[in-house]
Design a protein that fits this description.
The protein contains 16 helices and eight strands. By secondary structure, it is an alpha+beta fold.
Length: 624
């Protein structure tokens, strides 16, 4: 299947890929429309600025619509014509990912001549003619002309979508054929499939499945129900993981498959919190299962400590981005990371659940307020979590940061009109640099490109871990709902829906339903509280839908996401370690083509789905 997908997408790449990169700063011929250098620069267009003003030079600056409160950045100077027949011109490359505001100032008189808001198309060729309409009134016109139409850079996504829909159609037809008795009997005779679900014990806290069931009918029923519900959880985990693998591999180099520069959300910002959420859900089910089967709290705590230690160790030693800087040593070792945060979050949430939960706690039904039976019995946990949130708020908004305003949540750099260039992340960045050191945190944050920040900043830093714990705790809450209501599907789904609404209301209040103007904007780099409530709102709704389709109506088996969800740690570490190896990566003919990048990234992601399926069929599951 991967080979077919690669071949089809490679064909699309050949049809859609532009030519070689064009150089910056070359002037086209003066006579006639500019032919323009060859196309090919990804996420950029060519803009020719021609100055027809007789005695005034021009200064061209630009600001991106995605850059909040950013000062204009100088692009080029265009000298005056001084009566020459050949009008001075300069060619510049402009960004096409977001709309731009172009500002033309008179260089000698320092006056604003014109301001243009425009969204350039990728590989387009444009001209900006600046000329005088009336010498008496000094009226200046700025006319933007399209010399060559841009390409449609989104066609490869459409083509890939059609390819995968075709594969899905083939699978559906195959399943329909399997309903025909002769066909089904022949396939079963050839493949001889064996039941593997009983041997699966998903990592990060999924419940153990016993090899042999108890003779107690109630326990038999409970085991069956647990297996069904875990299928939806593994599907949820696998969906998050596969999107994570795809965006980590590059996401076709599309901006919406990259992390947001600062405030706001892209597809890449969704997956990590969802993975944390479902980890918390699995912790609730896992600990309940182990305590119900008679494991002592001391033994369970030992397992929690060991799993946390392994996750943190794997994150620091195996999956460390600073390997790209050379041999890893203490001088350049990045201490925070995805697995490190997962390990510490798992430790806190699992220990908290173990401390305040006993065997059979989920069977308590008689409460003064039955509608809150998944909350009130666990009030000590809520007090602990709310205390952590109070600490996050106090440190974020009241900790003095040298050279920065108190409570600063911005990216620094050219943001806030360049007033606080070295304040990236405010208190969160300051704490990491103070406690860990600048060389031991992430060196190239997502804010460095758009906001031109120079300070290292780690999106998996110390302060943001508090809200990651809160995210996992909300996932833990989903697990409590499953345990308390057992096979009452309507109750479970209604509770998921209510929690989603509550989290959505909190997010709306914190953000004022805006990207940048709220009290606490949605920010993945900071793991702001509004980011957690928004992601948990989406997570509850998504889990509700998957639970309904997979476990209640059984309209969907969870494939193909179910398989990587069963081996999530293996897939995550594997895709990080083998990222630059064939067949997951190869030398491209045109590195400036979205189509070729998308072909490579989708092929690599599909291969990990196939690998996880093969491991599932062979009953190989790596857990820690």
């Amino acid at each position: 299947m991967a080979a077919a997908v690669a071949a089809l997408l490679a064909a699309a790449a050949a049809l859609l890929a532009p030519g070689p990169p064009w150089a910056h700063g070359e002037d086209p011929p003066a006579a006639g429309p500019p032919a323009g250098p060859p196309r090919g620069r990804m996420d950029q267009a060519l803009l020719l600025v021609r100055n027809a003003l007789p005695a005034e030079g021009l200064r061209l600056s630009a600001a991106s619509a995605a850059c909040h409160q950013c000062s204009y950045q100088f692009l080029a100077f265009i000298p005056a014509s001084n009566g020459s027949l050949r009008k001075p011109s300069v060619t510049v490359a402009v960004d096409t990912q977001h709309p731009l505001t172009l500002l033309l100032d008179g260089f000698s008189e320092d006056r604003e001549l014109c301001k243009i808001h425009y969204h350039f198309g990728e590989s387009g060729n444009y001209s900006l003619e600046v000329k005088t309409l009336s010498r008496s009134t000094q009226t200046v016109s700025c006319d933007l002309i399209i010399n060559e139409d841009p390409i449609n850079s989104y066609l490869p996504i459409l083509f890939a979508f059609l390819v995968y829909m075709g594969i899905l159609a083939i699978v559906i037809v195959g399943r329909l054929l399997m309903k025909i008795d002769p066909v089904r009997n022949w396939v079963c005779k050839k493949l001889n499939p064996r039941e593997t679900d009983r041997l699966i014990n998903s990592e990060l806290g999924s419940p153990n499945r016993a090899d042999s069931l108890s003779s107690d009918p109630s326990q038999h029923l409970w085991s069956a129900v647990s297996r069904q519900r875990l299928r939806s959880l593994d599907t949820f985990r696998g969906l998050s993981l596969i999107i994570m693998v795809f965006v980590n591999y590059g996401g076709g180099k599309y901006w919406f498959f990259k992390h947001e520069s600062w405030n706001g959300l892209t597809v890449a910002d969704l997956v990590f919190p969802w993975f944390v959420f479902i980890m918390g859900t699995s912790v609730s089910l896992s600990l309940s299962s182990m305590l119900r089967w008679g494991s002592s709290k001391k033994k369970v705590l030992g397992k929690i400590l060991w799993r946390s230690f392994l996750l943190i160790l794997l994150g620091i030693i195996v999956v460390n981005p600073n390997y790209c800087l050379g041999p890893l040593s203490w001088d350049n070792l990045r201490i925070p990371g995805v697995l490190q945060r997962l390990g510490f979050t798992y430790l806190v949430v699992a220990a908290l659940e173990l401390l305040f939960t006993g065997a059979g706690a989920e069977s308590v039904t008689e409460m003064p307020c039955p509608a809150l039976q998944d909350i009130l019995p666990y009030w000590p946990q809520w007090i602990f979590i709310l205390t952590l949130e109070a600490i996050w708020l106090c440190l974020t908004f009241f900790l003095p940061v040298p050279g920065c305003p108190r409570g600063y949540l911005g990216p620094g750099g050219i943001g806030d009109f360049g007033k606080y260039p070295n304040c990236t992340g405010g208190a969160a960045g300051y704490i990491d640099r103070l406690l860990l050191g600048e060389k031991h945190i992430y060196q190239h944050p997502s804010s460095s490109v758009l906001y031109q920040t120079n300070m290292p900043y780690d999106p998996e830093g110390i302060l943001g871990t508090i809200n990651t714990i809160f995210m996992a705790f909300l996932g833990l809450q989903a697990g409590k709902i499953i345990l308390l209501y057992k096979d009452q599907h309507k109750q479970i789904m209604s509770r998921f829906f209510i929690w989603s609404i509550v989290m959505g209301i909190i997010s709306a209040a914190l953000t004022k339903c805006s990207k940048d103007e709220g009290f606490i904007p949605i920010n993945k780099n900071l793991w702001s509280i509004s980011y957690v409530t928004t992601m948990s709102c989406f997570a509850f709704i998504l889990l509700l839908l998957i639970y309904y389709l997979v476990d209640v109506k059984r309209l969907w088996s969870g494939a193909p996401f179910f398989y990587p969800g069963m081996n999530s740690i293996l897939v995550y570490i594997g895709h990080e370690v083998f990222e630059n190896y064939f067949p997951f990566k190869w030398k491209m003919q045109d590195s400036q083509s979205h189509a070729e990048h998308l072909t490579q990234n989708l092929t690599a992601t599909t291969l990990w789905v196939i690998i996880s399926y093969v491991l599932y069929r062979r009953r190989i599951f790596w857990k820690i």
